[in-house]
Amino acid sequence: MDSEDRMRKQREAGERESARMWRAWRTVHEMVQDRGYELSEEEVKISFEEFKRQYTLADGSVNNSDIGTIWVEFLNDTSVGIKQMRTFAQHCSQNNFATGILVTSVNITPAALKIIPAVAAETRIECFMDADLLVNITHHELVPKHVMLSKAEKAALLARYRLKDTQLPRIQLNDPVAKYYGLRRDGVYGVDEGLRELKGIEGVMVEDLHYEYPETVPKWG
């Protein structure tokens, strides 16, 4: 194989990696926007060519992105362990980021994941594989938009149907939709008309044990 062939193959490999990262990048921006952060449409709907011009390096890696009080970092390391997680957690904590999103191309070691609850009081760390962000799951017609209810709205919901927190339908914290929206344990979330028609559900409460829909579920009046 001559040098021209090697260079061509390297360019093709870099193009594939850039395309993969662009798709994950767009999903992350859509995810952050759906959580209520203000982003311009130019940031969210960035074209592939503009993405390559602004954000990719020669090896196809992506620069870090700082969005308000949330820190998003793409990590291209071939292994992600305690060292990388500690560095990420320290950066989020020292710079007062309420949430840090770490996107990796490989699984994070179990030992490194133990750092997440250890720093939970200072910053919330969420981890995603880039392969899980190549497609935005919330764009599917059967996935409803989730909106967190305020304390007053939650109280009104429970009072209206004479319910306790434990009687609301539940969703696992590791559910892909829960991860996308950054849903928190004990939060109550309203869902849009599409899911109400399918399930007759007004709100779901997040907890980390199970996912269930009671046989009798209150409908919107």
Question: How are the SSEs placed, and which strands pair?
Answer:
Elements: H1 3-34, H2 41-44, H3 48-55, E1 65-67, E2 70-75, H4 82-94, E3 99-104, H5 110-113, H6 115-118, E4 124-129, E5 146-148, H7 151-161, E6 170-172, H8 176-181, E7 188-191, H9 193-199, E8 203-207
Parallel strand pairs: 2-3, 3-4, 6-8
Antiparallel strand pairs: 1-2, 5-7, 7-8
Domain RNA polymerase Rpb5 N-terminal: 15-91
Domain RNA polymerase subunit H/Rpb5 C-terminal: 135-188
Family: Belongs to the archaeal Rpo5/eukaryotic RPB5 RNA polymerase subunit family.
Number of contiguous helices: 9
Q: What is the assigned CATH homologous superfamily of the largest domain?
A: RNA polymerase, Rpb5, N-terminal domain
> What are the secondary-structure elements, in order, as H or E?
HHHEEHEHHEEHEHEHE
Global structural class: alpha/beta
Summarize the amount of helix as a percent range: 40-55%
Sheet with the most strands? 4 strands, mixed
CATH class of the largest domain: Alpha Beta
Could you give the count of β-strands? 8
Sum up the overall morphology in one term. Answer: globular
Radius of gyration: 20 Å
**What is the CATH topology descriptor of the largest domain?**
Dna-directed Rna Polymerases I, Ii, And Iii 27 Kd Polypeptide, Chain: A, domain 1
Largest sheet, spatial ordering of strands? 1-2-3-4
Query: Mean pLDDT, as a whole number?
Result: 77
End-to-end gap: 71 Å
Low-confidence stretches: 64-68, 194-201, 207-221
Q: What is the percentage of strand-forming residues?
A: 15-25%
Count up the domains.
2
Could you say what the CATH architecture of the largest domain is? 3-Layer(aba) Sandwich
